[in-house]
Amino acid sequence: MEAASRGWQATAVDNSREAVAIMRKNAQQLGLPLEVIQADALKFIRQPRRFEVIFAAPPYPLELTPIFQAMVDGGGLEPQGLYIFQHPHQLDLKLTYQDRELELDRRDYGSNSLSLLEYHTLFK
């Protein structure tokens, strides 16, 4: 919703029917052009559709590294695009592409971190 509120064309994907209903209601009340899709995000990302930015913030009790790795492996990013992975500060996130460890740009914000991965770094 933050991206849509700043003028971006945004798509939100969540597996929970309740979460999707809340996002749709909030977007409508705020007049935001947010596309909300109920789906498994890891399956959704394998579709031929591509995005300039993929922001992922799964619930923290989940094992996040395999989720983020599956997103990188699944594609979905436009050339010159950017993955943004939100995770707890304690997580030392390591991702690979074609058996090579990827260089992540990590930004720490209190108890949370954002790890950024630019598309072009997949092919260095």
Tell me about this structure.
The structure is a single chain. The longest helix is centred in the first third of the chain and has 14 residues, at 17-30. The chain has four helices and eight strands. The protein has a four-stranded mixed beta sheet with strand order 3-4-8-7, with helices on one face. Strands 1-2 form a two-stranded parallel ribbon. Strands 5-6 form a two-stranded antiparallel sheet. It is of the alpha/beta class and 124 residues long. A hairpin with a 2-residue loop joins β5 and β6.
Chart the SSEs and their pairings.
Elements: H1 2-5, E1 10-14, H2 17-30, E2 34-38, H3 41-44, E3 51-56, H4 64-74, E4 77-88, E5 96-97, E6 100-101, E7 105-109, E8 112-118
Parallel strand pairs: 1-2, 3-4
Antiparallel strand pairs: 4-8, 5-6, 7-8
Brief synopsis:
This protein has 4 helices and 8 strands, in the order αβαβαβαβββββ.
